[in-house]
Fold these 2 entries.
Entry 1:
Amino acid sequence: MKRLLLIIIFFYSCDQKTRYSLDIDIVSSDKIYTNNSEISLKSTLEGRTIDNEKVKYYYNDEEINKEFSLNDSKLGTNTIKAQINVDGLKIIGKKTIDVFSNIPPKLYNYEIINEFPHDVTSYTQGLEFYKGFLYESTGLNGYSTINKIDILNNKVLEKKYLEDKYFGEGLSVINDKLIQLTWKNKIGFIYDPNTLELKNSFNYDKNIEGWGLANDGEFLYLSDGSSKIRIINPNTFKEISFFEVVTNNRKIKNINELEIVDNVIYANTYQSNKDVVLQIDKNNGKVLGLINFDGLREKVKKHSELDVLNGIAYNKSRNTFFITGKKWNKIFEVKIIRE
Ligand SMILES: [Ca+2]
């Protein structure tokens, strides 16, 4: 009986601790928070205003003043924490805040320079030039491939099929290694880019899907179908950090195929109604530009399995982009022009 009483007291005291609710209010003249916003913080305990001087505030676990500028905040979702001691108890409240870009994206259009044939059965997932050759990764179980293409002469030089259990995704060549992702298999393959001979494989270090892949010569950049782009160490394949892709008023989900030119990531999104490629600041996820590829899909052969624009490869020597889509019978060479 005594033991039962102790247990009851124990649960009662636990309940006492968790019953306090510390709620954070964000006060700002802005309705949408950006890197230009100034916020001030106050809190209520059990709905009652408390002495703000006794509250400690943290922004992503770093202590801040209750008057705070979002100038240096990372974009996307951040966490604000408030902490107060009441009767020897540490009470914590948490709130998330979404921070958006402080500039609207610039609008771009395109001009077709050339058209090249593309295998209409290719469910294109990754596209990238390396030493003048176009490398393409395709998806779907039983149909996934990796290809080395002499695009200007319309020749597939090498083609390898993946085992049926693998669904091929993004690809990129870094340190003379051709890396190919898979969708839900959580495995990546490493090939010799000259012969497409499979050299090695690696497992993802996070429970994520593999979508798009690109590199800036130093790191790999991986999309996983969310609004996040993950920066990956190309030797260990471990994640270093990530950022979220945001415009001046929303997060962009389903980030898919990637391409990096200078400090800008070019990315298309999956299942978007519009064929649009985003220009994203590689350092913070800010959407700098939107390239409207409206009309491009109208120029390819119509069939029941025709799908979205997916495939962006920059050709440095020609200073053009090569763009295709899933099961498109053409690859377009384009220039991007300001609207
Ligand atoms: Ca690419």
Entry 2:
Amino acid sequence: MEQSGKKVFILLIVCSCSLIFLSILLSNYWNVGLVQYKYWIEKNMELLRNKTEYLSNKQTQVGNIVLKNSNDKLGNSQVGAERKDTTENSKNNHYFPVNINISLARDEVKHIQENSEAKYIVYLCPGMCGGWGDRMTGITSTFMWSLVTKRKFVIQHHHPCALTKVYVSNHVNWSINLPKGLTQTQRYLIDNEQFSPKEIGTPNTHIEKRYSNDVIIFRNNIDWIKAFKNALYKDRLIELGFNPSNLSMDYIFPKLHNLLFKPQQELQKKLEDFLHSTKNKSLVCAQIRIGKNPTIPNDPTRNKPEFLPIIWDFLAQYNNSIKYKIFVTTDSENIRQSAKRLFPTTIADTEGVITHTDRSNQNQACQGMQKVALDFNILSHCDVLIISRSNFGEYAARLRNSAKELYGFTNGNIVKGFPRGEKNEYFNRTTKQFSKKQ
Ligand SMILES: Nc1nc2c(ncn2[C@@H]2O[C@H](COP(=O)(O)OP(=O)(O)O)[C@@H](O)[C@H]2O)c(=O)[nH]1
Ligand SMILES: [Mg+2]
């Protein structure tokens, strides 16, 4: 009895040792497997979340701002763009303030780039492609086409100079030379509002079947995003991590902008320095687009000078240099100087001459692109933001990715939300409150 007890004891020890040895041996494989498995689960959970989100589709849309679950968000990005939350995010996101999930789209971009068979799509800007905001529109629309059709995306931006002067590739290597000997087609679509409904929105054959050349080159400044609501593209959009029922430029722009760009070194340094100088203060900003003026004489009129006092009244509420920094960016040197005179201790300015990316003389416009891109990026970090009806301001607000404290300067009024959105609440210069139209 005692003998057999000993045998069982020894057997138990041998078994436990073998088990320990086996688990040590397997742990390496297991670790690798676990990581893969976790990645696979995360990816599929993300896909599932997207599908569920798409099916439940509970957003309410107000004007062109999508409000979801009553939070102040543009599109349905994961988190709004409160500046206080962005320090960590900024570190990872090269100082773009949005905190959004682009992991699926990033993986898709990687697959496309690794595919040596992939065809190409090009955003071309040789001049006459509109200002910075127009370029943001054209680039985003063309990039969306490339994601949907699994083509490699290339930016050929020659006017007023290379885009790489201010932006460099983030997750998409868009600054590449095309291989020789490919078939190609080129379409000039500047200001062409008919193209996307006709070619993307309504047909029942996929664009890839109708545009089969190796290289498709687009010159475009129009928003094509909503046209991809066409059911033909639904599955691909879900695969990319986008909600097909919530497709708008508000929702897509910050995602695609982050996939494509990070500020070039010098620009990033300027942005960091500027943001550092506003540390522990609220950043209150206004983008004032006046149109034709001595700084940019060959532009159509946008706002009248007599509209300006309401902006000064609004900003005066924040004229306290202990708590606030006021940043005014504009297409007019006169307005820039007025802001400095009115708020001498609170104002923060960025150096450089004001230029129009498409209309100033080429040398100046190239020099000026750094200020244009810097001002644009600063706007996306503002705690309080007034924008004019201008692609420049509107795209900065989209990049900011929050409807919180966003105001539109329109027709001599300041309204809550985008200047082109539903105008429900107006700023009253006497009471300094927002109310229904007086
Ligand atoms: N720095 C700066 N430039 C501006 C501002 N508003 C307009 N611009 C210039 O004017 C151009 C306007 O073109 P775009 O961005 O397409 O906007 P839109 O024409 O106003 O819809 C930009 O490329 C800038 O060069 C501004 O507030 N600040
Ligand atoms: Mg324009």
